[in-house]
């Protein structure tokens, strides 16, 4: 069994997490039942999160071009 001290997060790790969180926007979204399966059925070779992120960023780019 690992020593309890081995399980603690180091200060460097906590600092790295804080810096990562400052540079990124995290959003918790609830989708209708079946959405996960629909995305996976597309077999896009990317995670569901990557698909959603890429789709939103592409749509933002499109809308910004239209609205400028």
Care to describe what's here?
This protein has helices at 4-7, 11-23, 35-41, 48-67. The chain is flat. It is built from four helices and no strands. It has 68 residues and is mainly α.
Number of helical regions: 4
Radius of gyration over all CA atoms, rounded: 18 Å
What is the arithmetic mean of pLDDT? 92
Share of helix, binned: 55-70%
Query: Would you list the SSEs in sequence order as H and E?
Result: HHHH
Euclidean distance between termini CA atoms: 60 Å
Percentage of residues in DSSP E strands: under 5%
Shape: flat
Spans of 5+ residues with little confidence (pLDDT < 50)?
Answer: none
Task: Report the structural category.
Answer: mainly alpha
What is the gist of this entry?
The protein is mostly helical and 68 residues long. The chain has helices at 4-7, 11-23, 35-41, 48-67. Helices cover 65% and strands 0% of the residues.
């Amino acid at each position: 069994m690992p020593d309890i001290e081995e399980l603690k997060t180091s200060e460097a790790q906590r600092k790295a997490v804080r810096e990562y969180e400052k540079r990124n926007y995290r959003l918790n979204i609830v989708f209708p039942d079946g959405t996960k399966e629909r995305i996976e059925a597309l077999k896009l070779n990317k995670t569901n999160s990557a698909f959603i992120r890429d789709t939103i960023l592409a749509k933002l780019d499109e809308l910004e071009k239209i609205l400028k």
